Amino acid sequence: MGKTTKRFQELLKKIDENKIYSISEGIDAVKTLKSAKFDETVEIALKLNVDPRHADQMVRGSVILPAGTGKKVRVAVIAKDAKADEAKNAGADIVGSDDLVDDIAKGVINFDVLIATPNLMGLVGKVGRILGPKGLMPNPKTGTVTMDVAQAVNNAKSGQVNFRVDKQGNIHAGLGKVSFSKEQLSENISAFIKAINKHKPAAAKGRYVKNAALSLTMSPSVSLDTQEVMDLK
């Protein structure tokens, strides 16, 4: 533990904890915080002024990051016949129906994204209690329940990030790698924030974004200017 703490203390010296950073400054700052042996993920955390217990204040959707996520995404598709062929041709890693659901029921999950055709959602429902907590349940809002499986596979492979506000009103997402150029990170962060702003519920009152922060997988975080964040449309 001591080593981690010492490393963390060293990183804290590189940033000003009391400073509110512009998005541009925030990206520069987190890029100096690289300390792990692997290519760390640049993460954003937003605290929204919404109460997700009310359906009309739920913030959920997906966005395609212009520069991708920097990680290889394994995509599984639950489909039959022509739709199964379409998924395979689009580059899905795993395609199946009952056999795939049986595997999931046994706890075998070799994928990061699950897509299903609407007619097979009854089948998927059998393993909903396994998929739900892992955030893998296909959903029409994120484009993962669809007849256009080829498009959904392409989206997942090309850097689609799904977001969903938690019970406390927080949203977390990985928006690229620390090895990305500043331009790539700026594009990704901008696209993500715009998507969050676009999904602002009409019922949300007051300041929509209470707090915003950027960090790396293993770093402290820097606070972002929430006004700049809310102004990104």
Automatic annotation (TrEMBL):
Ranges in a coiled coil: none
Superkingdom as given in the UniProt entry: Bacteria
Cited Pfam families: Ribosomal_L1 (PF00687)
Keyword tRNA-binding set for record: yes
GO cellular component, one term: ribosome
CDD domains linked to this entry: Ribosomal_L1 (cd00403)
Keywords assigned: Repressor, Ribonucleoprotein, Ribosomal protein, RNA-binding, rRNA-binding, Translation regulation, tRNA-binding
Quaternary context: Part of the 50S ribosomal subunit.
Described function: Protein L1 is also a translational repressor protein, it controls the translation of the L11 operon by binding to its mRNA. Binds directly to 23S rRNA. The L1 stalk is quite mobile in the ribosome, and is involved in E site tRNA release.
Recorded family membership: Belongs to the universal ribosomal protein uL1 family.
Protein name as annotated: Large ribosomal subunit protein uL1
Gene this chain is encoded by: rplA
